[in-house]
Write a structure and sequence with these properties.
The chain is α+β, with helices and mostly antiparallel strands. The chain folds into two domains: 121 residues, no CATH class; 102 residues, no CATH class. Helix content is 27%, strand content 17%. It is built from six helices and eleven strands. Strands 5-6-7-8-9 form a five-stranded antiparallel β-sheet, with no helix packed on it. Strands 1-2 form a two-stranded antiparallel sheet. Strand 10 and strand 11 form a beta hairpin. It comes from Macrosiphum euphorbiae (potato aphid). InterPro entries: Retrotrans_Pao (IPR008042). This is Reverse transcriptase domain-containing protein. Pfam families: Peptidase_A17.
């Protein structure tokens, strides 16, 4: 996406590239015209260009809103409640993005008919295995099963029963593998976070064996620090939702 956005002429002098293919050659100086990947403002500038495109006068208000709301860098994650609306959204996004030289690719949908309207070279690869009998799409670090329209989770934890020495370093490494940005399996991961909190309170060193003086259900000696199941799904709700929130001294929970 960065290569599709040009930098203002007066700023290109700050993107100079020194180049030569042989030590005996004179150094040639180039100026990069597009946003430079890896620089600090690159992500901000690219996202700003998308917002500028969305604010163009000839862009449909619905398309403008989803571009601002549902894009994460060059990944679009959005949807509608009907096939007809989704089809219009798809066509509107393709038209609007192409007007700025941005061709959307790697499409995935829980409705195969939406994909049929797109050329084969734009269809995404959805063959990332999560188990022997399942294949899903990876979306920003999450696993999405488009066939059943559900997020799934896979945790490959060490079996601590066969490890005599369990240092804090190993436990923190296992906990760091629990990736749940949407909080869908929060009730399970919170147990690992409580364990992490306890390790710091006990002032255990990185390579010390983790055996607290008073073991608790959340202590490192109670087994694997990965409380979530190897695979779980979150089905799409189809009825009105209600929210109940309750706190205690260690954590608070919210049920929808």
């Amino acid at each position: 996406m960065y290569r599709q956005f040009w930098v203002a002429d007066e700023h290109r002098t700050f993107q100079r590239i020194l180049w030569r293919t042989d030590p005996q050659e004179n150094i040639r100086i180039f100026q990069l015209k597009t946003i430079t990947y890896g620089t600090v403002p690159a992500s901000f500038m690219a996202t700003g260009c998308l917002h500028k495109l969305a604010e163009s006068q000839d862009v449909d208000p619905v398309i403008s809103e989803v571009i601002k709301r549902d894009f994460y860098m060059d990944d679009f994650l959005g949807g509608t409640s009907s096939y007809e609306a989704a089809s219009q959204l798809r066509d509107g996004l393709i038209k609007t993005m192409l007007s700025a030289g941005l061709e959307l690719r790697k499409w995935t949908s829980n409705n195969i008919n939406l994909i049929k309207g797109i050329s084969n070279n734009q269809e995404g690869n959805k063959t990332i295995p999560i188990s022997d009998d399942n294949a899903i799409t990876k979306v920003l670090g999450l696993f999405w099963n488009s066939d059943i329209d559900a997020f799934q989770f896979e945790v490959k934890a060490n079996n601590f029963k066969f490890i005599n020495h369990i240092p804090k370093r190993l436990i923190l490494s296992e906990i760091a593998c629990l990736f749940d940005p949407l909080g869908l399996v929060g009730p399970a991961i919170i147990q690992a976070k409580l364990m992490l909190q306890q390790l710091w309170r006990l002032k255990i060193q990185w390579d010390d064996r983790c055996i607290p003086s008073s073991p608790t259900p959340n202590s490192p000696t109670s087994g694997s620090p990965t409380p979530s199941s190897p695979k779980s799904s979150s089905p799409t709700p189809s009825s009105p939702t209600h929210n109940l929130t309750t706190p205690n001294l260690k954590k608070y929970s919210s049920v929808i």
